[in-house]
Specification:
single chain, alpha/beta, 8 strands
Length: 383
């Protein structure tokens, strides 16, 4: 029942404000925080998890995803997940959809440094606040990896991102636990730490085969090379020179110095470029697909060879290719991709429904109805 006319305007205004207020309360979530108990570290660790948009999509067949492990997550998680979501979407995706596992610090200097150093006050080795790198690495390998794999759908392709102390942690893993990760993004690492101990370990190692790992290494710009940071800059330059000497076989690496970025800002630009470096060749010109029927297959074959891991086009990507071809009137090619999706993902409600839409559009209603029935039986919403 509506209010009297003299109150009608007020009633409408209050209703509109209440409606807008309710809309304004909607939350935007980019991830979740989980607690992983660690016997190795003897403490609980907070882990931040980002799942790609398709992960919870009930219309497609469940899939597995590569994983990025992010150090110093408390300062990097928000912007990095935004990059990944943007770069992995649309028909021109530069990178695949990925899960992000961000590790939040408790005692950063303890976990992210390779050796204990002398405390200036006590003149004793400070093992409580430095040199815990190997223990921290054991936590990642023996506890965090299994926990993630038990709780989420993952592919066995892993990337590690580290900056500063996190950068020398990543390099320590690359040298001594090479196969833990497939690719490493290392930003302005603290090579200076403990009299350049990590650089000396790289120089002295007899292990020169780095198993087709990928390394994207960055350094802040020379304008920020002041007296206080000179040791930092010099050590990083020495490390770059060592990599360029050819000592390490089967290491695919790229170095870039960002003139306009300082030590704090460099991970932002570095991660954007580093992800595109690792997945170079992932982006495909969808407008060329009709004229080059083997373009997608050949592109993914080369990507898999380059990354030493079998990457395949996702159901959602092939769906977008097919719909682009349908929009441009290239129906025969579109049907081929829709049938490819159904063959690759036979339990996908969307793969069946898309074929229903295709045959409905070309007025083959009986065949369309068959695919619609199969889609609904697999859980596609009937309304």
């Amino acid at each position: 029942m509506f209010p009297p006319k003299k109150y009608l305007f007020t009633w409408l205004l209050v209703s509109l404000l209440f409606h807008n207020f309710a809309i304004a309360q909607a939350k935007i979530a980019i991830g979740e925080s989980r607690i992983v108990p660690s016997k190795i570290l003897q403490e609980d660790r907070s882990i931040q998890i980002y799942l790609p948009p398709s992960y919870q999509n009930s219309k497609i067949q469940k899939a597995n995803y590569p994983v990025i492990y992010l150090l110093d997550s408390e300062t990097n998680f928000h912007y990095l997940t935004g990059f990944i979501e943007k770069l992995s979407q649309g028909p021109y995706a530069y990178i695949p959809e990925m899960i992000v596992v961000g590790i939040v610090n408790t005692n950063r200097s303890r976990d992210l440094t390779p050796t204990p150093i002398i405390d200036k006050q006590t003149k004793q080795l400070d093992t409580k606040n430095s040199g815990g790198n190997e223990t921290f690495i054991s936590f990642i390998q023996q506890e965090l990896f299994p926990w993630i794999e038990n709780n989420y759908r993952t592919e066995d392709y892993k990337i590690l991102i580290g900056h500063s102390y996190g950068g020398i942690t990543a390099l320590n893993i690359l040298l001594n636990h090479t196969k833990m990760f497939d690719a490493y993004l290392v930003h302005d690492p603290s090579i200076w730490y403990d009299n350049q101990v990590l650089l000396k370990r790289f120089e002295a190692t007899a292990t020169t085969d780095l198993s087709n790992r990928r390394l994207y290494l960055t350094q802040a710009g020379e304008p920020f090379n002041n007296t206080e940071l000179n040791a930092h800059f010099t050590a990083n330059k020495k490390f770059q020179t060592l990599l360029g000497s050819g000592k390490f076989q089967r290491l695919n690496w790229q170095f870039k110095q960002y003139e306009n970025e300082d030590h704090g800002s460099i991970p932002i630009t570095g991660n954007l470029d580093g992800l595109r470096y690792v997945f170079k060749g992932h982006q495909i010109n969808i407008k060329a697909v009709a004229a080059q029927p083997d373009l997608i297959e050949n592109s993914y074959k080369k990507l898999s060879e380059d990354l030493n891991f079998p990457f395949l086009p996702t159901e959602i990507y092939i769906e977008k290719v097919a719909r682009y071809l349908m929009r441009t009137g290239q129906m025969e090619q579109a049907l081929g991709y829709l049938e490819q999706n159904l063959h690759s993902f036979p339990n996908s409600p969307q793969a069946h429904y898309s074929l229903y839409e295709y045959f409905h559009q070309i007025h083959q209603k009986e065949k369309a109805q068959t695919y619609l029935s199969q889609a609904i039986a697999l859980g596609y919403p009937s309304n």
